[in-house]
Specification:
CATH architecture of the largest domain: 3-Layer(aba) Sandwich
Shape: elongated
Number of domains: 3
Structural class: alpha/beta
Radius of gyration: 25 Å
Strand content: 5-15%
CATH class of the largest domain: Alpha Beta
Length: 290
């Protein structure tokens, strides 16, 4: 099953293709300035029953060198089968589109990034016919963006910084910087970046820090993440209110009932329990038929 961090590592390039210009500059590889970009189908399946899909595929127009293809692969761990798959992708795309093709691999840990960056000779050891060497972006070479002014200049790069540093000690400072930079951004720009950052953090400890920052700094946004956080806040408030009503009516609440109330995260269920609490004679009455 594809993970949320995997999706975020390549989808940020779908949303912001111009990000590749900044990333290639950071990686020390000169590409001509991007003038436009379009997302292409990622399905590289042939007529035979063998399905192959890249993560993200973009056709990028440049200022003076003509178009090229950029395929972005998100790699979460070492996989000995990947180099041959990547070589197939590049060969297939060169054959199909007849355009220069670049492979960018995005990683979230240094060991995987170092593995992905190795030149891999393909063919007989006596005479390799191809050598695969993708561009690799990860916590080892994507800068930790911790200056708010710098983050505002390039919000997409600041987001990629947070995603690639998700497991690094400096991720907290990056997230605080990104949150502050997004405060002044229009909702249409901030909302997708909020979601991509949340996806990229996955279930790492930093994910809760990002939720807290979104709840405080970006509470006016209407992204799915911020709505989820608001729902949680409403649920917590209703649970506390329900317990206060039962206490005010001198209705005993067992440890089991208290646990059921405080662990409920469904605002509609809690609302129903609140209504029942007004006439209940015991804590069990509010749970009847539910």
């Amino acid at each position: 099953m594809v993970s949320a961090p995997h999706e975020a590592m390549h989808r940020v390039f779908q949303e912001y293709p111009e990000l590749f210009s900044r990333v290639s500059e950071v990686l020390g590889v000169a590409f001509p300035p991007v003038t436009s970009a379009g997302v292409l189908p990622t399905d590289l399946t042939e007529a035979r029953p063998l399905e192959r899909r890249v993560d993200t595929l973009l056709r990028i127009e440049t200022e003076y060198d003509g178009p090229f293809l950029l395929t972005v692969e998100a790699q979460g761990r070492k996989d000995p089968d990947k180099p041959t798959s990547w070589a197939y992708y590049v060969s297939y795309l060169l054959e199909k589109y007849r355009l220069p093709t670049t492979l960018l691999v995005v990683c979230q840990d240094r060991a995987t990034a170092a593995w992905a960056a190795r030149p891999v000779p393909l063919g007989a050891p006596q005479w390799p016919v191809l050598t695969l060497q993708p561009l690799v972006a990860g916590p080892h070479n994507i800068p930790a963006v911790t200056d708010v002014a710098e983050a505002r200049k390039d919000l997409a790069l600041a987001t990629l910084s947070a995603i690639t540093h998700a497991g690094e000690p400096d991720v907290g400072a990056i997230l605080r910087t990104l949150s502050a930079a997004l405060r002044d951004a229009p909702d249409a720009i901030a909302a997708p970046l909020v979601e991509l950052t949340a996806q990229g953090l996955g279930n790492r400890p930093a994910a809760q820090q990002w939720r807290n920052l979104v709840a405080v700094d970006l509470s006016f946004y209407t992204s799915p993440l911020s709505e989820e956080i608001r729902d949680e806040g409403r649920a917590e408030g209703r649970a506390e209110g329900l317990l206060l009503i039962l206490e005010a009516r001198d209705i005993a609440v067992t440890d089991e009932a208290r646990e059921r109330i405080t662990s409920c995260d469904d605002p509609q269920v809690l609302r129903e329990w609140l209504l029942r609490a007004a006439t209940a004679t015991s804590a069990d009455d509010i749970f009847q038929n539910m």
